[in-house]
UniProtKB/TrEMBL annotation, chain A:
InterPro entries: Metaxin_GST, Mito_Protein_Transport_Metaxin, Thioredoxin-like_fold. Residues 58-159 form the Thioredoxin-like fold domain. Residues 212-276 form the Metaxin glutathione S-transferase domain. GO terms for biological process: mitochondrion organization. One of its GO terms (cellular component) is SAM complex. This is Thioredoxin-like fold domain-containing protein.
UniProtKB/TrEMBL annotation, chain B:
GO terms for cellular component: SAM complex. The keyword Mitochondrion applies. The keyword ATP-binding does not apply. CDD domains: GST_C_Metaxin (cd03193), GST_N_Metaxin1_like (cd03078). This is Mitochondrial outer membrane transport complex Sam37/metaxin N-terminal domain-containing protein. Belongs to the metaxin family. GO terms for biological process: mitochondrion organization; protein transport. Keywords: Membrane, Mitochondrion, Mitochondrion outer membrane, Protein transport, Transport.
Amino acid sequence: MVSLPIPQFLKSLFDSFPLRTYPANPLPSRCPKFGTTPSLYAFATPEDAVAGNPSFNPSCLKWQAYLKFYGVEFKTVPSNNHASPTGALPFIISQQKSMSESMEVEVVPSDKLASWIEEHGCSLDVIDTDSAQVKAFLVLVNNQLRDAWLYALYLEPNNSQDLAGKLYCGSSVSAVSSFLLRQAKAAARQQVLQAYPGGVLDPRRIYADAGAALEAISTMLGKDTWFFGGGDPGLFDASVFAYTHLILNLRWHTGENTLFRAVMEHDNLLGHERRIRDAFFPEANTPDANKPLGSES
Amino acid sequence: MLELHIWGPSFTLPSISPQSLSTIAYLRLTQPPTTWTLIPSSNPLLSPSRELPALRDGATWVSGFRGVIEYLYCKNDSGLDDALDGAQRAEAFAFGRYIESEGGRLLDLSMYLTDGNFDVLRGVFAKLLPVPARYYFPGVLRREARRRCDGLIPVTSSASASGAAKPLPQPTAMTATALPGAKEQISAKGAAERIKQVAVATGFLQTIQSLLGEGRFIFGDKPSSLDCLAVGYLSLGLYAELPNGWLREEMVARHGRLCSYVNEVRGRMLGDGVDVTAVMSGQATMTTPSGKLAGGGLPWETVERKDVPWVTGLLLNRAMEIVGITCTERYGDGGDREEKTEQMEGRRIEARRLQRWETARNVAAVVGCVGAFIGYCVWSGSIAMEFGGKGKYEVAGGMGGGEGDDDVENKMGLLEGFGSAESILGLGGRGTFGPRGEDGRDEVIE
């Protein structure tokens, strides 16, 4: 590569405008200031975040509940997926005073949250999450129940407009929000299709699978206070609560509330949800006071 | 007579799909041999949900392992899990789902996403499928496997990349000094991949081994539906002869209990070794030189190879998928056991209305695009006319619809538009484009 010499007139022109570096601008005043309490970035409405109410997203709610089980003090910050370093919510930003007195920011993505919480919280009497039984039942929650949740929220025509559209794709420009909703629906369909390789989504089958999963989970809980006979609620309790609480509290459309009815069939799961809600989310909506539209049917 | 349609046999096993194997095991344990037949049709489009295995009983189709056992339970009023109590049944359900999800991903990783193994698998599918489908289906299955294993395999692994492996250094760069380094890199990558694979496998196999314990079957002395699933998934891991056999080696080396369990129950559940060529050519009852039945004692039936309708169906299906007219969501017709309330009706009508609207929109979009393209061709054709100096064509093209009085001439204009590719693609300036357009027109008109 041969470099061309700069013509004299250009050189003199550039010389008369010397390069100058300005000091960095201060950060905008609305940018977050990290206190000593860790912040959990989660899907939540601003009012709920201030009041410490449950998030409307199951995986965020799961970690929210788990943090509360361990008594870790935190504040919820309403956010969305674009804010996350891994592309998925929730994540925690915590700040610690290090040796050199300079503040050090630690970002904990969702896959490392469990160990982080256990390290920072009080010690609890919980069962080992690596046992075969817990693994197997977690699959039920993360596959069957989650698929039915995604189907009910995104792919039922009325629910997707009124619930998913409002909760996840709220934008002041209607064209943008309808595009976002379309994207979210396509992603949800992709996700659900993984379990149904034929490419045919039959809602009866999806709901029947979720119903069977709930049945098995309910049998496993039996008359115990917490799952698998633990003395304190653990990660599995948080996972189940995240779905049951949201399924019971969302205002599903009449005729598209199969999942709600499936949860209502199991009294011990309702009791489990109520125990966690009373103990850890005292401000949260109760299913009775906030009766879903379809519950009369 | 029950007909069980499955993905065809492979590696001496009666099927290449774990779900099909589990279903065969279940039928073999519960149904008398004379009441069912096994058809290696390998055509997922047969059943309404486009999945295999699929069971046909007269005009009724049910598909998937769970669908089949549920149907058989309703039909016979008895099943393999009758002896289990409530808690055991819940456990069987949860572990069954665990095997389907985690074991399925493990097999995906081993069969479809490991370099080398997939090529062997292509050869296996070539024996099972007619000509165009044998090139199409393995790719589809691999794509599905990749989607399911998303996040399980490291990004550097070739299997997770959308294409082939990261390209090796170019031959010119492979100088004497570069070569050992490249080799080292490749072997290090292979070792890292292997560690990851083994970690995934160990997690699953340990869980199943601890579940199995020391008993003959998982729940005591009698087989349950969970045993069928476990055998279906584990046997494919153990008996599939693949060039990169990390899963098999892992099972043999560290999970001997699982291997002995599968070996023990294989004959009872999946039949003895199956001769793939004999079964596919309809000679399942023939005895092999070693004195065994080629079909392994399973009630094989020959496939009716209706290649033409199948391929047509496949193509039609793809075309409809692309346009968006698919029947991917059906709101409960046929075999309704649910209550049919008015709300359900209303909802179904609503859903159909939405679907029709969606279809109409897609068709409109396609028609619009085609229309715009033709319009553009006509428009660019008319420019060419103008350049040639014959105003008549310009007028005809300007009308744009193609329904003017001088229809023939209009078509000429259109032809010309298509003729000069340069004008469509916007290549070439006006200067170079003029004389060429004139030549073209001369040819067309005179």
